[in-house]
Design a protein that fits this description.
By secondary structure, the chain is mostly beta strands. The protein is built from one helix and 13 strands; from the N terminus they run E-E-E-E-E-E-E-E-E-E-E-E-H-E. The strands form two sheets. Strands 1, 5, 7, 8, 9, 11 and 12 form a seven-stranded antiparallel β-sheet that branches. The two termini are 30 Å apart.
Length: 282
């Protein structure tokens, strides 16, 4: 099951896979499809342009084994970009999810490692909050029944240090069933509410999959969903318009490795440092 609690349950959330259900910005009605002539492993995973642009790119796809003559494996690296295109628009929360499945009768790939994983905080901030409470007591009733007009004011000041940070939560998930190996991954981004800077503009993630022993050339796929929540001052329904589902990403293990970020030892994917591949930047 998922390691992190459910986020983005608010009615103001939008789901990029399905669209917001409103007309939205004209430029936002864009569906990402596989090229019929080259359907496998498209680099442009998701692209949405509206009041806020959201873009996901497959940086590296490497098929190989965990170790020499070991279990079959696939390494995937993705870049996510979140950019506001209008003033006073920002994304306060976002969740990116991948679900892997076989396109034939073989078992779905199992998720072994991801990065970032668990809860991490970036750009922490501290501030002092002060609260002052006051009360006034009147003194009256002199000897002749005349108020003396004297008053006493009591004040109490309380100061405290508060801290906040932008949060990134990575999780390995079991999706669509209650048995077997984990077949999904997700990352949740939550802004620093104290400074209202929005979620990070750039996030790089990495996933290591283990494929079935007899599925050396078996194709598989990934369904991608991005859900985002805008700040309450923005009109969420106008961020994106009606958009059909994007095509799933199709993977063909017979294709050569990409080696864009670095040269990978395809026979030792189990030794790749996924944390070193991942990144978070504003």
């Amino acid at each position: 099951m998922a390691e992190n609690s459910n986020l983005l349950d608010d009615a103001t959330a939008i789901e990029i896979e399905l669209g917001s259900g409103d007309e939205g910005d004209e430029a936002s009605t864009y569906r990402t499809q596989n090229d019929p002539s080259q359907p496998y492993q498209r680099s442009n995973v998701i692209e949405r342009k509206g009041s806020v642009s959201i873009h996901c790119v497959a940086v590296d796809v490497v098929h190989g084994t965990l170790e020499p003559e070991g279990e079959l494996a696939t390494l995937l690296v993705f870049d996510f970009q979140f950019d506001p295109n209008k003033r006073a628009r920002r994304i306060v929360e976002a969740k990116m999810s991948f679900v892997f499945a076989s396109t034939g009768g073989d078992p779905a790939p199992a998720v072994l490692k991801i990065a970032p994983r668990g809860r991490m905080t970036v750009v922490p901030t501290q501030q002092t909050e002060s609260t002052t409470r006051s009360a006034k007591a009147e003194a009256g009733g002199g000897a002749l029944g005349i108020s003396l007009g004297a008053g006493l004011t009591w004040e109490k000041s309380v100061s405290r240090e508060t801290s906040d940070a932008t949060t990134v939560v990575g999780s390995i998930d079991l999706v669509g069933r209650n048995y077997g190996a984990s077949n999904g991954v997700s990352w949740a981004l939550i802004e620093n509410r104290s400074v209202e800077t929005g979620v990070p503009a750039h996030v790089r993630t990495a996933v290591l999959l283990q494929r079935a022993a007899h599925a050396s050339s078996s194709e598989f796929q990934a369904t991608v969903t991005i859900r985002a929540q805008a700040d309450l001052r923005s009109s969420v329904s106008r961020l994106f318009g009606k958009t059909p589902k994007d095509d799933p990403i199709l993977y063909n293990p017979s294709l050569p490795p990409t080696h864009k970020l670095q040269h990978y030892e395809v026979g030792q994917l189990g030794k790749v440092d996924l944390q070193a591949l991942s990144a978070v930047a504003f």
